[in-house]
């Protein structure tokens, strides 16, 4: 007899992997000139934002499923608006990359997410450089370089778009930690959509007006309501599946699921989009980068487990003694997992990157810090 709780856990993980992969492939299909031929990534992202914001409004204000947080004008102006701006930017650049490079190569580039996040965290002063993590980041970068070198259809423009989106997302994660955490504000998926989606929609309207509006006026676009509705619905469902996964699993399980999802997505993309061929050098480079990511995840899990030990336990005292013996600020207990962000909204956004999720998009499920998970398991 299968344990019901265990069955639900695996069911939620399966739903997450299915939706996450499905939304990415769906977005690629919609945007690609070879398939549905809707080459307007900002418009597609705005549809996601508008739909998600509307659903969140009804859930918060009409059906009272969750209560809104205590949001003041100061918090909205100094926290929500800048975070929404970088969030909108990450979605814009990430979705635009689909027009130029393959899904498989995009997933390989996303291995750079922890590198970018660490860089931004150190730059903003929210984390300190640790040599063990730094060496892992070098390994990840080296793997991505090899993978890029082996890309058959390498496109500079698409690569720049994707890397810019990764940098924007990394900065958003750091800002989320710096701004929201210090305000003591945590947002669940619904309240995050409620506050951030409309603001992101407004930010996207500016580049849409100058870059896509004219093209949409002159091109022959067949707007299929059911295509865009189902696409936005899948993206919204992905947000809620993340909430279910977070509530039932630990850091190791989630990280493994993220890695599994990436490999499944790369394999599926080569089948669904035959032009997205991958080479042996692609696989070797990505495997090297993945080794760095796995070791990075292991370090993070180990650090957080050490930080959760009782302060008077022999293990924790021994850990503290070893830390004091180190010659520099290689490890900062107060900054554990700072490079991934904090609070529900930030950690959930770590679940995936950009175009995968209209709001929580971001980096990747395999990069979540356990401290974020423990702070939002509710």
Helix content: over 70%
- What fraction strand? under 5%
Order of helices and strands: HHHHHHHHHHHHHHH
Could you name the ranges where pLDDT drops below 50 across 5 or more consecutive residues? 319-378
Tell me the number of strands. 0
- The number of helical elements comes to 15
* Average pLDDT taken over every residue: 80
What characteristic shape results from the CA principal axes? globular
Rg, Å, rounded: 20 Å
Could you give a short account of the major beta sheet? none
What is the straight-line distance between the termini? 28 Å
Class by SSE composition? mainly alpha
Give me the oligomer status: single chain
Provide a quick synopsis of the model.
With 378 residues, the chain is an all-alpha fold.
Walk me through what this model shows.
The chain is an all-alpha fold and 378 residues long. Helix content is 71%, strand content 0%. The chain contains 15 helices and no strands. The protein has helices spanning 4-31, 41-62, 73-96, 103-109, 113-123, 131-149, 156-183, 189-211, 213-218, 225-248, 251-272, 280-307, 314-325, 343-349, 370-376. α2 packs antiparallel against α8 and α3 runs antiparallel to α7 (156-183). The longest helix is centred in the N-terminal third of the chain and has 28 residues, at 4-31. It starts with a helix and ends with a helix. The model is unreliable at 319-378 (pLDDT under 50).
